[in-house]
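Hey, I was hoping to borrow your eyes for a little while. I've been puzzling over a protein and I'd love to understand its fold better. The fold is given in discrete form, as structure tokens running alongside the sequence. I'd be grateful if you could look everything over and explain what you see. No rush at all, and the record is pasted right below.
>
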Amino acid sequence: MKNLLCETFRPVTGSPGGSPMFERGGHRAFLIIALAMVISVYAVTARAADRFCEGPINLTRLDRPLIHVGQRLTAREPIKIVAIGSSSTAGAGASSPAASYPNRLAVELGALYPDVPITVLNRGVNGQDVAGMLDRFKHDVIDERPDLVIWQLGTNAALRGLPIEEVGKFTEQGIREVKTAGADILLVDPQFVPRVIDKPEAEGMVRLIAATATKTRVNVFRRFAIMQHWRERDGMSFDAFTSPDGLHMNDWGYGCWAKLLSTAISDAATRAITSAHAAALAHTSNTSATP
């Protein structure tokens, strides 16, 4: 900008009285450039505001109820969520820490449940794979005594071509640790972005995470399929939800992920509450009918 000012506001020393004046052409060019910059900023803001955050229910809905979260909501007791993962959790690509998905998730859940204190801890570390996350499970996850653990994984393993069997083994170990601690857990698969989908291992990693979730009877949030839907069905450009590095999500992407995830968590917790009430009513009816 400094060079631009120096080029466009050139003083004319031959003006009457010897005082400098701006060339009309330079002044006009500066105004045009400044106006274009303002219009550009407002256009980007408008596009972000007008972009509708959505995901098909068959992709966003969690397969299983979140029993522990449902119990806490029923009792109006505080809920602690630990979000563990790599740079997608840490917030790489976001304009500020406040725009990371864990922070946005806390805001979204707070709006859904204003009477229930909900804390979301961000335990993302840039560049980590599943083994590295597992090494810090005890301190960063289990010792926090969470009610729900959201485990974002698989991206760095796919980027580095790590053995898929090894990733599956570590994932199952982490799930066992969380279950033993008495918390709900849901997995989040890789992001659908240029640098990930260029890797032949990416879709295999998505399938592995889905299969592991089915095998261990836990939930998985289908981030890959949802973002693929944005791109291929909604016709969104990658730069609408991806940062310039072609790997991480941007503010809008993280915000929409958090919004869809908060709705999925709420739905799964509500199903847990409904199932518990139905079971209690059935038990009462059976007890009453016993002679």
In short: Residues 1-23, 34-49 have pLDDT under 50 and may be disordered. The chain has two domains: 2-45, 59-275. DSSP finds 14 helices and five strands in the chain.
